[in-house]
Amino acid sequence: MKHEIDLKHYQIRTDLAIDTINEKTKGIKVKTTTLDDIKITNVVIEPEGSNIIKKKEGNYITIEFKDVTDTHNKEKVREVFSNELKKLLEICGIKEDDSCLIIGLGNAKSTPDALGPLSINNVLVTNHLFEYGDVIDGYRRTFAITPGVMGQTGIETSNIIISVIKEIRPHFIIVIDALASQSIERVNRTIQMTDTGIQPGSGVGNSRKEISKDVLNVPVIAIGVPTVVDAVTIVSDTFNYMYQHFSYMKEKINDPANKLKTNINYLNETIDVKTEDKESLMGMVGNLKEEEIKQLIFEVLTPIGYNLMVTPKEIDFIVDKLSDVIGNGIDYALHKNIVK
Amino acid sequence: MKHEIDLKHYQIRTDLAIDTINEKTKGIKVKTTTLDDIKITNVVIEPEGSNIIKKKEGNYITIEFKDVTDTHNKEKVREVFSNELKKLLEICGIKEDDSCLIIGLGNAKSTPDALGPLSINNVLVTNHLFEYGDVIDGYRRTFAITPGVMGQTGIETSNIIISVIKEIRPHFIIVIDALASQSIERVNRTIQMTDTGIQPGSGVGNSRKEISKDVLNVPVIAIGVPTVVDAVTIVSDTFNYMYQHFSYMKEKINDPANKLKTNINYLNETIDVKTEDKESLMGMVGNLKEEEIKQLIFEVLTPIGYNLMVTPKEIDFIVDKLSDVIGNGIDYALHKNIVK
Amino acid sequence: MKHEIDLKHYQIRTDLAIDTINEKTKGIKVKTTTLDDIKITNVVIEPEGSNIIKKKEGNYITIEFKDVTDTHNKEKVREVFSNELKKLLEICGIKEDDSCLIIGLGNAKSTPDALGPLSINNVLVTNHLFEYGDVIDGYRRTFAITPGVMGQTGIETSNIIISVIKEIRPHFIIVIDALASQSIERVNRTIQMTDTGIQPGSGVGNSRKEISKDVLNVPVIAIGVPTVVDAVTIVSDTFNYMYQHFSYMKEKINDPANKLKTNINYLNETIDVKTEDKESLMGMVGNLKEEEIKQLIFEVLTPIGYNLMVTPKEIDFIVDKLSDVIGNGIDYALHKNIVK
Amino acid sequence: MKHEIDLKHYQIRTDLAIDTINEKTKGIKVKTTTLDDIKITNVVIEPEGSNIIKKKEGNYITIEFKDVTDTHNKEKVREVFSNELKKLLEICGIKEDDSCLIIGLGNAKSTPDALGPLSINNVLVTNHLFEYGDVIDGYRRTFAITPGVMGQTGIETSNIIISVIKEIRPHFIIVIDALASQSIERVNRTIQMTDTGIQPGSGVGNSRKEISKDVLNVPVIAIGVPTVVDAVTIVSDTFNYMYQHFSYMKEKINDPANKLKTNINYLNETIDVKTEDKESLMGMVGNLKEEEIKQLIFEVLTPIGYNLMVTPKEIDFIVDKLSDVIGNGIDYALHKNIVK
Predict the structure, then answer these.
(1) What pLDDT shows up at residue C82?
(2) In chain A, where the domains are located
(3) Which of D123, D146, D155, D174 to mutate to test the interface with A (most CBs of A within 10 A)?
(4) ipTM over 0.95
(5) What is the phi/psi pair of residue D92, to 5°?
(6) What mean pLDDT comes out for the span B270-299?
(7) B215 class by beta-carbon count within 10 Å (0-12 exposed, 13-18 middle, 19+ buried)
(8) What CATH number labels C17-228+313-334?
(9) Are C61 and C92 in contact (CB under 8 A)?
(10) How many other CB atoms are found less than 10 A from the CB of residue C26?
(11) I need a surface site. Which of B247, C6, D228, D235 has the fewest CB within 10 A?
(12) Which of C90-104, C137-151, D61-75 comes out lowest in average pLDDT?
């Protein structure tokens, strides 16, 4: 029966390491810290682990938080982000006066893709001040570029970046990019940092030239925030919520204790979804594995020809706040004498 | 079993008349014209039809098109839109020198909701020129306001509008708004005009005071373009596509003629989806009616607390073009002496 | 000879009280405080003084500062501004839970005129939250509007404002506007607050309806920042600098002590410009009084038909920072429970 | 007496060839055409002329017009600009399918300096479409970049440009930049094109690396529009207007024929300003040559430390229209199959 649906291999790309890592794998070390409601996950992928999960070896730091539109919370996230970035700079062996090129990837004219360029607006650029002899102690040389996207420039973004790097020869590179997520709940609520570099555009289905230490011979730190999920993700996530909702309802609805409750929320409970529940709720589809479901949804949506993305209604406002966090957070991590 | 899921009444609001109209209903007249690949649907709802479908009596004109990011096509859409608006002005008894207040509803800071304010940027405002004695023949007096949304002003938008109308007493009103759609395929590809007025915010779940001739005693023409679908729509649309895809595959996949075809596209065929197919594919869910499915998805997504919207990736670019079409189209319809 | 030039009455408008006030006048009280390099001038014009200098009686507070593009300095200016505004609210008898309408005057599409609308973007709007029952203690009801300018709306701005006020009936009003200055040195370096209200557009030569307690029966606090000087001011200021420069040079240039100095700066010295120096430097023009010179420049520039303004090159950047100061400063003054 | 003022050499930079060219000079050929109220000046500077006026040999085309905020006039200016650019491409030996890199110089965040980046937004970029195999006949390969300014990137703009050029190796280059003007009347009313290249930032006092055929070995066409004059220019222009006004008044004011006239306008008359008039009006200053006056104003304004620019109030609106003219004009000149 399954064969009636042609399940050729399909895998949604995502740029969040946390989505693909299993901490029980050999050669993968995971450490989790919590600070109020901010969760920090440090993942180190060693060569052995790298081979197993097909992800580059290196450090992956993920910061998960609730809401940066709250001023107080935003400030806390900025601080955590800044501290984690500082630690990663140390791990990478960056020295206090090493010069840094900061690159804001993405399309400034498309809100969810504008995180990189907007963050660059908030970043302190100092190199030209050094040239003029203006800079006080405690600041390093920084450069910043927003190379645009291929649709605007006609040029492979990596090519612009690599030619600028050759010209200015920075000691290390920070790249900021908006990512796609494989989970609705992570959108705009996660910052990922890694020293393994980035492939511009890899989240949207194009495999481009890599920006990484392997290619450029200087450390490359990539900072990403998922700002969109695609339509396939929203549908398959909804399937999962439906299973949980169904299992929860089946169990609770006849419990007299619930008769007087309003707003029963299945998300607050740990729900064990049984296979037969899936099947009775969703028939044949209930029998498919998550990846097969995604493959099916992908096939079904492709002929509509729509390049759909799912974002919260407040995306313009949120991206604005996130670019504050990223831009200022980088400044505090890079320059030791910045006073708050 | 079905009762385990509490199906309290839920109905997604939509502002597109075309989504709810059945031309066989008594008291509803439908006329369709095609111009190249632009389709114009004129619907007149008479009192009898109004009672049956619970939609206000009046004229509803819908223009469906492919793509306004193509310059040539954009110009054709603008022309069709302008002509239809001119006809509607005549139907409403608007005279050549009647003054017009043009209102751009929505939040200029949120891309898919910015259609109204952006269109206003492209609209010719003349009233103050008349005051200065500057205006040449063939132009009427126009005013324009962008009242913002309640989240920006703290004020019910209708209240701002009504108080300004009392002050300037225009002969008629044009209101521009971004709408929600009940269908992915209509997003950014449809313009609707009606002389029945508008309820600001009605597409996003709030029932606000009406802007209409009934309330204001002057003709009100509402122009709307669907720029978003909500997450419920994308999931339920996907269910429908899955049924079609499944039925199509079941029938075609073993047909030897298809063995060599790539990109088999179920959308090009008329597919008769059988109830038993729905059930075997989707189990219990396959037994639900469309409205029940939407209700279920709505309930399941609500606890995630996310205010999700689905838009194409190019939304910033498309809304920009659409606001050109609307703004310039209004100018050509309102002022007889504008030379192209 | 003088009569060959027709000096009909011409007076450049300015909205800065500090430009026209002489503290020796009867019925005018002036108090100056200094906080680091921020200077605060409190002027009270009593009825007697009001008659003499033809300026409305009331309170005028002027804050003069160096530079808000420096983060540290910006924060200090914000604090001083916030405190002075709080005091003015008390003087006006505003109670803790009185509701406030905040109005951002000006054209958001023209950088130096965008201060009002940009400040509104940074202001906390709460009224709708009260309606939803969401607001915590220590916040008052606030509303905000950006009524645009006549060139955008076709409507007298005062009329929009007055009709909205009638509708929502706030307890008091704060109006924010960009001003013209009569002095290059004040541009972007001064905030003025007054409880005497404002005439929208009065700085640019149009006399419009007043927004004031006299007209509206509720307290109106006007906050203004000069962001432009006009071409007449830049030329007449330059004349004055030329006199000072000339007198200074005549005296100093032959002083052997100056032989080794570079960058001799006449601005650091108190220079007594003699009438005969003016005359020998500038001939007939040197005999004219300041107002006559301005009249002459105005006449001479009028036929060029250019609507010129003078701003610093960094105006976009500075207005952005100033709108942060104004927007956040208002929040801190209005809501007692905002935590920094 | 004059020597008391130290007149060290000072020369305001300007990027408009037309401001410095004298058609009687040997080795300079000037041809002027008029089309309605658009004036086109073609200047060829030959080696001999180049030596005399210290300006690079090559072609300089200047288009002077009245107003691009008028839709009809804007379209005419675009057409003239497009045709002149086409001719210049021919003169430079550009072939139909030569690839072109279009560079928008300037700071997108500062309105009068944003002409370059804004024009790039309106320019058709095709190279990536060729890569995908999408392009139809009659289009050439185009690339576009907006390298930002040194204050944003920390990098010498020329260095970014040169490294990108090395990477993509276009057949020729078009550079768009906002210029400073030495005359109020030219601001926003002139387009200059030249095949002699450009020095990024040369109009604002910095001498940077040249972008020219000499350096890059491919043709470089520079397109510039003056969008600002500096404060020195506005003051010295006013001095000249004062002389004219004074001479005119002296002659006309006692003429009985003028008694009934209002709005006497000295600009409509050819006025012969006598040296003694200058002296009696302006004393010592009236004796200075234009360059000496500019030097004096420059010295006098320098200590104020202000980076002042003079622009019309409508600059945001005008730059928007001008970038349409430049962007679309380039498209029509570059791609033969674009249909209007």
Answers:
(1) 97
(2) 17-228+313-334, 233-310
(3) D155
(4) no
(5) -80, 0
(6) 80
(7) middle
(8) 3.40.50.1450
(9) no
(10) 9
(11) C6
(12) D61-75
